[in-house]
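Example record for the data management plan.
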Amino acid sequence: MKLLHQIVIGFFFYLALLLLGVGSLSWNLISWVLYPFLPRERGRDIGRAAIAGGYRLFWWWLQLTGVMRLSYEGIDSLNRDAGLIIAPNHPTALDALLVVARVPRGVCIMRASLMQNPFLGAGARLARYIRNDPPAGLVRGAVANLQAGGQLVMFPEGTRTVTPPVNPFLPGLTLIAYKAGVPIQTVIVETTTGYLGKGWPVWKPPHFPMVYHVRLGERFAPEANYQGLSQKLEDYFRRELSA
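Corresponding structural encoding:
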């Protein structure tokens, strides 16, 4: 019975991934058509709302079918804040989807190659997500967004966790916070699964249900010694995730 249960739940999970892919491709086609005609701010708001809404629907389905147990603590309250960096740890590739679903105003940093991805590129451009290349352009774009009252979702590890509880942090996030003069809100992502972590392919099924708990951590003020602040953030995450 347990094996049958895992097979049935696995079917619902991969069906959800298929529908997410089809939905993403469809939205990117629509975004490609809309991009030249919508004013910048209108396109940005529509693009971000559509991405967040799609992810919320995805998570709703996974919880409804028993694929996932998901809880949030305090994340929705961030929508009231302007000029804020939201900094989660990054155990799996699902973390960005989890956070963006709850903070539709947040802009993400994306690899330049993903901006050409048929499932992500046009939608990301419509939402005015920020390319990570060149680095100077990344910093300028992120600072401008924050100083205009926007929110930035950025992983201080720079990539998915390889050496738990977190990888060594990169100072780019704290440099942006200092230049923009905005605080950093930490978000703690805890999970029982390694699915879509580094080296885990999408076709290798996890054990179900997957459990995710996403909660607010401490908020850090920007510091001129941004490299020192990066180390403080890393130490904080290590304590929280090791507790």
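Summary line stored alongside the record: The first helix runs from residue 2 to 34.
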